[in-house]
Design a protein that fits this description.
This protein is mostly helical. It is about 45% helix and about 10% strand.
């Protein structure tokens, strides 16, 4: 099972992004610090929870406000997971493009997903406390 999306330009000599991986020595990314690495691992863990809770409601992924272009970027669950794993292994984010014509109704922010997960957790915890009494 492949964990990342298939590159449609793999092996294509006219790949428009072919030179992006050829970084010079001085442009090489610093490895992630221990704290940054831990943050990415926590994001991956959270992503699994968010997907499990939100996919059945029709949510396809997360929307993230891009710091570079100040536009919302829509990421399906698998693409975001692949991007986080790439960041974890390489120490640098992937080059990104906005999704083609996404339906914003099918994407939520990290904050919304976190709040939804917290609400589900609190509801389940309240039910267990009431049963004990």
């Amino acid at each position: 099972m492949q964990e990342e999306p298939i590159d449609p330009f793999n092996g294509d000599p006219t790949d428009p992004a072919a030179g992006l991986d050829d970084l010079s020595d001085d442009a090489e990314a610093e490895p992630l610090s221990d704290a940054e690495r831990q943050d990415v691992l926590e994001d991956l863990s959270d992503l699994e929870i968010y997907q499990a809770l939100l996919s059945p409601t029709g949510i396809r992924g997360l929307v993230i406000e891009c710091e570079d272009c100040h536009e919302p970027h829509y990421f399906d669950w698998d693409l975001l997971r692949g991007n986080l794993r790439h960041l974890l292994s390489s120490g640098r984010p992937r080059v990104h493009e906005p999704a083609y014509d996404p339906d914003p109704d099918h994407y939520v922010t990290w904050e919304y997903a976190r709040g939804y997960a917290d609400g589900v957790h609190d509801t389940l915890t309240e039910g267990n406390e009431e049963e004990k009494e």
